[in-house]
Predict the 3D structure of the following.
Amino acid sequence: MKNRYLLTGGILSTLVTSVIVTGYFWTPYSTTAMNAREKMQPPSLSHWFGTDNFGRDVFSRVMQGAGCSFLIAVLVVLIGCFAGVVIGSLCGYFGGTADLILMRICDTITAFPAILLALVIISIAGSSVSNIVLALGILFIPSFARVVRTQYAGIRDLNYIKAARLEGVSVPRILYAHILPNTLPVLVPAMTIGFNNAVLAEASMSFLGIGIQPPMASLGSMLKDSQNYLTSAPWYALGAGFSIVLLILSFSLLSEGIQVSRNE
Amino acid sequence: MRQIIKKTASLIITLFIVSLLAFLAFQIIPGDPTTKILGTSASPEKVAALRTQLGLDRPVWERYIDWLVSFLKGDFGTSYNYMRPVRSLLADKLPVTVLLTVMSFAITAAAAIPLGIVLGSIRNALADHLTMILDQIIMAVPPFFFGIIACYLFGIVLKWFLPGGYVPLSASIPGCLSYLLLPALSLALPRIAMTVRMLRGSIRHELTQNYVLTAQSRGMPLRAILIRHVMRNAMIPVVTFLAVSAAEIMTGTIIIEQVFTIPGIGRLLVSSIGNRDFPVVQAIVVILAAWIMIVNFIADLLNHWMDPRMRSE
Amino acid sequence: MSLLEVENLRVHFHDAAPDRFAVDGVSFSMEEGDILGLVGESGTGKTVTSMCIGGLLPRWKADTQGSIRLDGTEIFDCSQKELNEILGKELTVVFQEPMTSFNPVYRIGRQIGESLYVHRKDLSQSQRNELILDAMRRAGLYEAEEISRRYPHELSGGMLQRAMIAAAIVTNPKLLIADEITTALDVTMQARIIDQLKRLNRESGMSILFISHDMHVVNRLCRQVIVMQRGRIVESGLTKEIFANPQHEYTKRLIAAIPSRYSGR
Amino acid sequence: MRKRIAVLLTSLALSCALGAGPGATAVMAEETKNASSGNAELVVGLSQDLDNSLDPYQITAAGTREVLFNVFEGLVKPDTDGNFVDAVASEHSVSDDGITYTFTLRDGVKFHNGETVSADDVLYSFETCAATTTNTAVAGALSDIQDVTSSGNEITITLKEKNSSFLSTVSSVSIVPADYADQATAPVGTGPFRFESYSPQDKVVFVRNDDYYAGAPALSKVTCRIFEDANALYTSLDAGALDMALHMSLDQVNSLSNGYDVIEGEMNLVQALYLNNGKAPFDDERVRQALCYAIDIDSILELTEDGHGAKLGSSVYPSFTKYFDESLVGAYPYDPAKAAELLDEAGASGLSFTIKVPSNYTPHVDTASVIVEMLSAAGINASIQKVEWSTWLNDVYQGRDFEATVIGFDAAYLSADALLQRWVSTDSSNMINYSNKDYDAAIEKAQHATDDEEQVAAYKEAEKILSDTAANVYIQDLADFVVLNPKFTGYEFYPLYASDFSKIRPV
């Protein structure tokens, strides 16, 4: 059965990534230059997504905004995943008190309202991109840790692991050379879901006003600013909103495609 | 039974840690509640007087213990910002958020389960691909974006619903419920998509099991097999997922209440953090954390009850 | 008029090659009280034949020709509703894998009573319980009350297979199809199940279509036997005669395959 | 089986959509249905929650003072032109030497709880206000009172020394019933509207005061709905759930699609890029002047307010005509070259600094964004740090831990003092650490000037010093838009933060 998801997901994600990468170097218009004459222009050939209340080209800002959201989401997933794997593997493999303590910490993080934790970190260290990534990264550790923990607990007792142990293979090698590859079929989808949630989390933080600082803009902060001009310049909100949807959709379709082709 | 005791114990410990963390968080965040109360041009002596009155000058540990003792006795303290006991504030606002969460959860279950059953049991390739794409798209739409667009479309353009025109339950039951319908829907949509996907996959998987063949060989019609046999098994992972999403919905209300101007504890939490209103934030943080823990706890219990294989462990 | 008449049965799977037939022109018949063995290596169309008789082959998977008459009614002409009247009442099936044939979330007793729930709605719950316990005892499960309250994962393979048999005989069907039911069991349990089936046949006159690749088991249980190879019947007749002097090369190999300790008897 | 479930689903989806329709609008219509008959009801949108205490002497937030203007009155109260007219007092007179003020109590004035106002209530009000008010400027003015005596319905106040703006202080002393304990949660005053109920973060309701001495207002009930999210307020207004909204931004007004009337006025505040004069690099006057030259005020107005804002040159806003000095407006014409030259002179050519700005005030955030963009064009590297309101109050206003910020200062009560006293070097709320001896002397002279001309001249001299020393980069008084349902008319702006519901009446 021709794997439609892999195809559409693949095309969409390469398209989105290429737009984002070009966004880092070049954008049709400067993303910060303001000019009063061009305020609130509807979408036209020169401005594909129209202009905002300062006369800036929305499409260029969306390109950079997407880049910013993408960067944050990827970094957050990396932090969450790396720390999650370390914690999850230790808990899953060894169990006992380490498992109890680390899992309690994870429970606390999940139970803690995300916006309060994010606010604490940002008010201590200021709201630069790195702090937002740190704040969100911490929030994402428990979900990865739990997934990895159940995987390790499952694989820990399989015979080939016992065999490796008997041969005197060092624990880290067992953990990360033997068991980790087998957790990938579960870890990869968890990472894509993590990516989606990271994009949404960043957007929500910006929506509550504790995210990216102007003049830099992420898709979330643009959506927040655009809400004011919904009736007079709907293209501003729609441009930002649908870019978020496209960003998430392309990568979740890709991961769906990978999953479908894997268990075919 | 032993497991239940162990779980409740860990739940209580975690709640303690969460409340402590929230308390410490406020020592770190800059901003002093007295400025909000006394205003910007208050004289230093007045500020100091108020700080002692509110007990803000005592060491952190002492204040935390005091808060804990009074909290357990049911006295949540008085809000710095509204000069009213936190209990009465929450008494007004908690029901609103709970109603929103319950409605959103009901919509999720009511829409996702039948849809999941239908999609799980029919063998139509086109329907499969269509719903798969639809699921992906709905899951990609951030709830607050859907909220904004819904406000614009249904509110301003179609005038079916007046954004910002929240009607309290006491004033008119239909008015309140119909106002909360759209916010509940924007919270529920992504979860409906996820639940449908999971339920369809689970039913598909169960249909291939041998006990279905056995039931067929007993002359049982497909519909009876689906309801009596397949559903009981297919629902096990879905029930856990629904329980967990009940927790996510409650935290999701924080943003949705801002978009739809609903006077619930979500909005109160955001404004209280802004106003550095410790007692209110503490109370809400503990309530939210308790709700998340309890819901996960119920998910485990449901899991045990529905799946006898788990019980023997 | 015999209990079961199968005439020129042909089955072709949609996803198989056009000329490749899973069952290529099989005909045989069974009388009341017969125990007929259907034997051959795996993949020779034995199970497909039994599935057709049981009306369990989904239409969208394969198309079928020929005719199967059970007690006079033509299976292929029946609508699903009519089929459901027969299945579980006139004819029941026991499958190979006892562990997975049970629904993991329900107790054994309730699942044994499923066909009563479908066909005997007139009975009260207590009457049904009586029938269930009686069927369990007839299938060799003597502490019936206690076992009926257990869950499938709490019982051994042998006990589960007995429970499946109990479930099959609770409505006293005319024909029981046993599809490789001993394959998943150890040798001692196999012998007990075979004796159980013999006793049931003797007591209730229920005819059994026994499908297996194990000639030894067939030899112990079945009066007549049909040998199948690549969808066709290569030899059929009384078991004693076939064992005495097998005609067809394939039958010889099958008999030779029995481990020496059991041959003779 | 499939068919039945499909039918269930479509009916579910339909009920979702329709359910929202009739139910909601029916309820809302009822609230504004009887607008035409005698008891018109108005629904107003507030962009900030009310203060914690509604006690007139404890109010700090401008948004709360603005609404409770309808509930509390002093012996005298300001009118739309900024003069003081008689309110609870029927007439008032000032002795030639400006020391003794006599007020005759208007007879028959009733409090909202039905009691008639007595001289004792007035004495009690002055005492309690002096003791408990959180506003240091008012407390300071009241401390100049020698004594307050009453005989029958005559109240005489004698001052220690002449204070030309004492009438404005009298207007800010709201007359309250003696020994009434819970003003904080259930305020009682003499104003045209009576307080009915308040539920936090939801709404506050005022009802008409039928026996108001100057005639009962046209509106029978005013419901103020509270929004923290400006966008949600705007959407609700545009959808018709509100009849009136205050302090809308120009962009919001331009994109309204519900055909409401738009009334334009000034916000009556001084928006500027306030520079921390106590901290490098802005302790050097030349660097501050360089910024003044490097920022083109006209294009800020163009970008943020489409030219609607009113330019200003110092810490007094234009609608305060008596003290506004027109000549200071063009003091620093846009001249990037001169700015660069001044920066080199001061040895701060590679200047870079952060602007801390409160995230909940969109107009100030927008102005800061424009400034950053403009300065980067002139080689000055400025960056924005949006902070929460509480953090801004704590770090910037109280802690003075900032380099630059964009905010607007309004007048708590109608006097130049309320705007200029703040920059006296010894004042506790001198956020920008401005210390200039000539300035302090000018303010001192103004406060104790014997006659009006002398006082105005002294205040203007102080304003000039602020401009010459480039204390801050003065930008504009933001345009203030009030949006009103065409079913109502009569709204008028006041020269201070107040919105008078008693003037509004159905068409």
In short: DSSP finds nine helices and no strands in chain A.
